[in-house]
Specification:
pyridoxal phosphate, 417 residues, six-stranded mixed beta sheet, four-stranded parallel beta sheet, 13 strands, 41% helix, Ser/Thr_Dehydratase, alpha/beta
Amino acid sequence: MAKVEKLVCVICGREYQQEDTEYTCLSCGREGILDIRYDYEAVKKTVTRDRLRSKSDYSIWRYGDLLPLSRFDLRFYLQVGWTPIYQVERLGRYYGLKSILIKDDGRNPTASFKDRASAVGAVRALEKGSRTIACASTGNAASSLAGLSASVGLESFIFVPQKAPQAKIAQLLIFGATVILVNGTYDQAYDLSMDACEEWGWYSGNAATNPYLIEGKKTVGLEICEQLDWEPPDVAIFSVGDGCTIAGAWKGFKEFYELGLTRKLPRMVGVQAEGASPVYRSFVTGEKLETIIPDTIADSIAVGKPRNYIKALNSIRESRGTMVTVSDEEIINSIKVLGEKAGVFGEPAGVAGLAAIPKLLEEGFMDRGEVICHVVTGNGLKDIQSAMKAKGTLISVEPHIEDVREKLHQRTSQEGD
């Protein structure tokens, strides 16, 4: 375990020791998101390229010396992390790019990026002696926390808004979670979950405000650096909901850079749906974030009151990055593009970053010769209804070859017109 030096509030700067508070700043309340800081001089002695090369554990636990956990004997057998990263030439040609990398985090145990956070959260809960964990989610964080909690015997209570996709709710039930369907928005479900944790002493698995869970998310940045032979991409693109995913990824990139393991840092791009873009608006105007009522097909980033927006904005500005919004129509089209050009099936939030590429090129933010990395944060099977909106045309035939021949001929003729 890395020695945790302190926890720092991103709003007021107040510093804490680990035993002082578990979640947020005691002065700023639930808005006071904390950042975990380590003794990096000590970390330098244990986190080296040679030592990482010698490790046979290809999961997030290979980065244990950069995680705030002490009981690694409590970690579980499900493989979280070390998801594949592909250079997809056909997709690059489609966008007119020299190089585009796709990191498919839909390959995690519960088919989403959120497993990284849930893995650390579940182990932290066990370290604290908790037997029950809870969170609120539009879907992925919920199914992730439920699945990974089930693997270590933790009881889970999950608060989800009624608009959560059925496939994600099905995962929750299969994992044995107690599902509390909230007649309201994600933001209302979040507040209710926090109230319940306080009421019954459950461990909070809400990554938006639990600083330990974001440490799990940073492993994607560490992984990308190592998988690319210590040459980070020029641009890293992430969809943004609460803001903790892009903030976590940036922390991973930054830590390896500050430890001397990489020689550059990527520019971070945050992408929000047009119908759920409060962080984008704050980025553009420079004003304090305003709460909205989200309206987008991308349920995983349908957040009207992002809790971790300050860390998200800090990561984008520190990296000389930018933010972009995309329409639901552009998101749906990107599901099809990613599938047809890369053979990767992404859910709406997982492909939102691809929809931003034409705009980023048009605005001159990135050059066509740069190395671009897009992280697909969730598998498309999570939301079949959205995927069906992006589907191709079905051909219905009678069970004989003559009809197949005729229908294919008709389609060819129509395409030629």
